[in-house]
Amino acid sequence: MPTRSRSNRVLSLAPLCATIVALAALLFPAAASALDVEIVNQSTKYGDEEVWVTVASPSGAYDVKNEKGEALANDVPKKLSDIPNGMLTIEAINSGRIYIAYGKEGVDEHVPFESPIRFDWAELTVTPASGDKANLTAVDQFAIGMRLDTLDSEGDTIETVSDANSDTVFDALQQIPGGSDAVVRNGSEIIRVLSPLHSTAYPDLGEYVRSMSGKTIVLHSYFSSTEHPEVTSEYSGTFASDGSITLTGKSHPEGNAPETIAVPAGELIPRIYTASGTPNNLEGEILHDLFVGFSAGFWNGKYGNDALSFCTTPKSNAFGQWCEGFNQPAFGDARASLSPFPTCEQYAAVINQLTNSYGNPYSDASKRVTVGLDQPVSGGSVKTLKLTVLPDSGSSGPQEGGNPNCGAGAPAPTPAAAPVSKPRTKVRFIPLHRAWAGKRLVKVGRVQCSATCGRVWAVLRHGHKMLAHRFFETDAHRRGIVMKLTPVGKRMIAHHRRLKAQINVFVTPPGQAKRHLHRKLFAVKHRLKHER
After folding, report:
1. Burial 230-251 (b: 16+ CB within 10 A, else e)
2. What domains are defined for the chain?
3. What is the DSSP-derived secondary structure letter of residue 71?
4. In the predicted model, is pLDDT for residue 66 greater than 70?
5. Secondary structure, 3-state, 319-367
């Protein structure tokens, strides 16, 4: 609780004991009140003894106890039945997660997405400060439906974010292209559906990007930091036939971003899913806005191609205008009609329809997906965060839904033609005996095809972390694969002389792209040797 004002204490008129108490209060002010976290299990399949709770903070502050005042170890699973009344108190946690897992054992923050354990998590930060927040997330996967409620000291609800029940979300995700192939099962039970960050089963948005050929877009972006407060920009560019674009413009004040930003199609298309290569500066915000436009289906939709129309109430300062989040209805609601190809990220569109979770890194741009944790110590009223584990079936749902219909419409009928049998292109991936990595790039081997290779997509991972990726199209029969390291990859390579990683290569030869699952997966494990 907040300490009382010093001006309210009249020490000379108080009895001696009261004076001593008041002096102690001055010298040792009361600690900030902790956030209560209540975990409620409504699962109809798993009792409290089969529901595991792990509270984890990868770095920084961590002070979590049960209601008896006993410390809860960081990143160590504990049965819900062993947490008295399912109550925790959190004094501080930095970029924390509360994992929920089902079965005979729990998980820690390093659990791989191939795990046979069904798990999911909520995210929160408790400083405490007025800007603290909590959220649900499906950026990596969807596995367990949950709900977050914030309560005041009287137990009244302040804010809520919620998922639909798991079976509802599982069913919807399996109806979109690639969704059924992104399912992870333990026997016959679905335990999660992976997102495009961890499954290449989903089609890329290349046709959508290339459909923008000859069209001009305008971006109005904003960035603020201690060194560069209140910086705005206006950039525009026209898409080339392959989907690449060169953005030109200026920042205000000048010099906060390059006047020309070139984005090749081979980098733009996969980065719509990954949101990689968006540094924490004005240039990163410009790229972020470009990718969000494709992910949410805004470009060439009903709002036009000036990003200022993607929000209802643009912000402004002396230098210009910008959107503080694209809050116009997105995905299917942003489209005037269906196209012959997907015009948004369909996994995120389903998550947006059925949950208040993050469906991709941009979800908070167009919909509220967080609850505030402004506690009394910072002037707010949030006393308790209630996390409810929902049953797999039921009538739960988000506070705000959405229209996910931005997939491919039925193509115009064409005259039937006699089937032509084409030989399937033989494809091989030939890895280097030992891959090598420099400061920005990593070379892993080559792809070799019996005919034109066509589209090639390569992803390098260490566990569930993406180290590098590369997407390109080629008319050649063989091509070396040199991949661009992600920021995570650069850091890991810098700190490890040798690092085990897995390379996945996907090849779509010409004429075979439209047939289901003609992209072939190759996976090999080698060591990356870091150049010193």
Report:
1. ebbbbbbbebeebbbbebebeb
2. 1-30 (no CATH), 35-200+350-389 (2.60.110.10), 206-332 (no CATH), 427-530 (2.60.40)
3. B
4. yes
5. CCEECCCCCCCCHHHHCCCCECCCCCCHHHHHHHHHECCECCCCHHHCC
As a whole number of angstroms, the distance between CA 517 and CA 513 comes to 8
213 contacts: CB under 8 Å, gap ≥ 6: 239, 240, 241, 242, 243
The structure tokens listed for 187 are 């026997």
Assign 129 to helix, strand or coil: coil
Contacts of 83 (CB under 8 A, 6+ apart): 39, 53, 66, 72
d(CA 182, CA 352): 18
Size (the chain), residues = 532
Phi/psi for 110 (5° steps) reads -100, 10
Query: Contact, 479 vs 443, CB < 8 A?
Result: no
pTM: 0.74
- Whether residue 371 contacts residue 438, with contact meaning beta carbons closer than 8 Å, is answered with no
Give the C-alpha separation, 272 to 290, whole Å: 9
Residue-level pLDDT at 20: 36
Residue 429 pairs in a beta bridge with 447
Q: How far apart are CA 182 and CA 194, in angstroms?
A: 5
Q: Do residues 63 and 92 touch, judged by C-beta distance below 8 A? A: yes
Pairwise CA distance, residues 108 & 56, whole Å: 8
- pLDDT band for position 263 (cuts 50, 70, 90): very high
How far is 273 from 460, CA to CA, in rounded Å? 15
- The tokens describing 424, both together, are 């399937």
**What type of residue is 253?**
P
Contacts of 76 (CB under 8 A, 6+ apart): 54, 108
Residue 231 near residue 252 (C-beta atoms within 8 A): yes
Note the pLDDT tens digit of each residue in 168-199.
999 999 999 999 999 999 999 999 999 999 99
Q: Which two tokens stand for residue 209?
A: 């990007």
* 73 — pLDDT class (breaks 50, 70, 90): very high
- Residue partners of 480: CB distance under 8 A and separation at least 6: 443, 445, 446
Whole-angstrom distance, CA of residue 274 vs CA of residue 199: 11
Tokens of 498: 């040798």
Determine the Cα angle at 179 with ends 99 and 401, to 5°: 70
Helix (H, G, I), strand (E, B) or coil at 254: coil
Whether residue 529 contacts residue 501, with contact meaning beta carbons closer than 8 Å, is answered with no
Q: Quick check: 101 and 79 in contact, CB under 8 A? A: no
Tokens encoding 341? 């190809």
Strand-pair partners of 372: 133
Per the listing, tokens 């040792």 go with 28
What is the sign of the dihedral through the CA atoms of 228, 96, 101 and 114?
positive
- 53 in Cβ contact with 99 (< 8 Å): yes
User: How far is residue 466's CA from residue 463's CA, in Å, rounded to a whole number?
Assistant: 8
